Amino acid sequence: MKNSFLFCFLALSFIGYSQKKVLHTKFISDKITIDGNLNEATWQSAAIATDFIMFEPDNGKKIPDNKRTEVRIVYDNDALYIGATMYDENPDKILREITQRDNFGTADLFGVFINGFNDGQQDFQFFVNAADGQADCIMTDTNGEDYSWDAVWNSKAVITKNGWIVEMRIPYAALRFSGEKKQTWGLNFFREIRRDRHKYTWNFIDSKLGTFTQQTGILEGIENIKPPTRLFLLPYSSFYVNANSQEKTIGTLKGGLDLKYGINDAFTLDMILVPDFGQTKFDDQILNLGPFEQQFNENRPFFTEGTDLFSKGNLLYSRRIGGTPFYKLNENESFAEAPNVSLINAFKISGRTKDGLGIGILNAVTKNTPTTIFNNETGALRTELEPLANYSVLVLDQRFRKNSSVAFVNTNVTRNGHFRDGNVTALVWDLNTKKNTYNISGDFKYSYINDTEEKTGINSQLNFSETSGKFRYGLGADITTKNFDNNDLGINFETNYFSIYGNSSYRILNPTKYFNTFNARINMYSQFQKETGKVQSSNISFQINSNNKKNHYFGMGIDANPLETFDYYEPRSADRFVIKPTKIGGFIYLSSNYNNPFAINFNPSFAIFDETGRNSYGFSLGPRYRFSDKISLNYNFNFLRQNNNKGYVDSVNDDMNATTPNTIVFANRNVITYSNTLSGKYSLNSQMNFNLSIRQYWSYAENKNALSLQQNGRLANFMAYTTNKNSSFYSWNTDLSYSWWFAPGSQVSVLYRNNAAAFERNINKEFSENVTNLLNNEALSHVFSISIRYFIDYNEVKNKF
User: Average of pLDDT values for 534-560?
Assistant: First the structure.
């Protein structure tokens, strides 16, 4: 009888949580001042959203009364107003680190999640921390949180004797909703009590389910508002001073305009005219000994903001646009100077209708760019031309039943004249059961290349997984034909294979005696060369991640390649392969609680190969210290040593009568890598920040003896090869910046940057000299820049005049 009563109670509790909460708002005509004081009379009569429920770690637990949260919403013809009171019996313990925009820092947090179409598909999320800092993002279940999206809105946070208060004004121009007379919006509120690492939401988010955006509450009462004219202009002006030992110091003045226009209630046009990416973060270059190019992060705001639609099918690698020229260098060649294909202009149109149809169009044009190429052995120079090119992406993504979608994607690159053109078309699907318990996803891609000859290829994958509960699993397979090529606007390394894979995981949904969170996962992957069936990859791994009661993080993993595999990429020659030995490796990581002023990360790893003397080991060590809510420093040191590593170094003729290279040369080598990074910030307030970023990198590969690749994939000693193919690459980068958000959406940025890099065949093992050799006027390049961007909202201008 007792158990029956308990079951009924739990069932009723779950039903109560699963029902959507409803908050009624009201129209106001009085002015509200955003000052963090809810002293206007209109706040006192507004309905209250309360009774928050824990999302993490103890999912479903009610918030304590002494930390209760009360939120009110009112609206007028121009904006939505949110007033939130976060009670705390120890207001002096509220964490409030000051950080730059979109960085929460070590601080308590309040957020509001709004879906103007109430379709469970996409939330616009706005956060304010206890230090009065702002963050915002677009959230979808498929792509998670996209903090590259930025809106213009007002907020103020104030610490009180009873906790803290947040007041927000979110203009309708920052939201998306229909033109219907009576509005019903999806709504949720979020609060994090940072010192406890406890996260709460107003409407219960059940962590057993594989969705976040569909578990929101309801906002009712908004009537007779119209979607505003969303026209924003961002004119900018920049001044650069460039200096180095090879060129005369010059100053350059630039100017341009970014434009955002709301075509209708769902779609937005973004356009850049005369783009300026001079203050973009530098790339972390490495010594790349592998057969594939190094992939860099996209740091240009236009190509990172609001790109969730364009990520469908993983066909867009936007660094292709205005990046390194597409033509390939021959052996022993390098660029005489850093190539930079200039972007003439770009625009994108994106949005989603109330019926769930998402449309994304991106187009960019780059200009003719001649580049000088240097032969490292002969000293000869040649010039190649990257022609005028048009890059375009089209995405049609239909969502249905709130949690599933089917998308059509096309990418196209057309180059002027008799140059290579590329086109890729894909069908992408992501299907979930009604209760979000199971998922089937996959895609089918077709590529067409028109170069010296026409080539077509396909790539396809299919995945099935359970996405809810403590135990979850997934299975999948994919296939890629030999001529599949999406590298004109995407990035892809491996072709001509098929693979099968699977995973299984276990997680706790509520804290235990020792853990707040705990999950264990096992993965298996096998890849086969499509034509011969030879095993190209065979891997099984096991990993544990956990967070204990003191909010320290611990993890470990074991990774094994139990079979010899056939690598068709490292030889850099068609239909040749090298046999790679079996191996086993592992790692652990420790990350102490960042709430403490001093915290540290430690991550050692190792790998042992079934080959005499071949192994690798390394570690990363990252102490960090928060001196105050304004000042912090983070340091990270990485070390990796690979003993008796085997890799490609050259292709030569060992037959005097041969007309083409007939011997592929590998090296038995030791590869050692060091890197040091230091980052720090000093925040005057949430609108003014100084940031420092320093990176020193050095990696070298010292060849012990040469090896020739045999036809059977084995390696044999090659005593006749004596060319020095050692590699040593070292670099230095420094960024010191000041940022001031002097008005909503408007910013002044001041940046000093220096950088230097060198590649050598002769290895100098004196660590200090590899640093100091770059820290002089002969090696360093310097850039000083000032940029001013001003945000102009058509609605604000219209109201003033």
Answer: 97
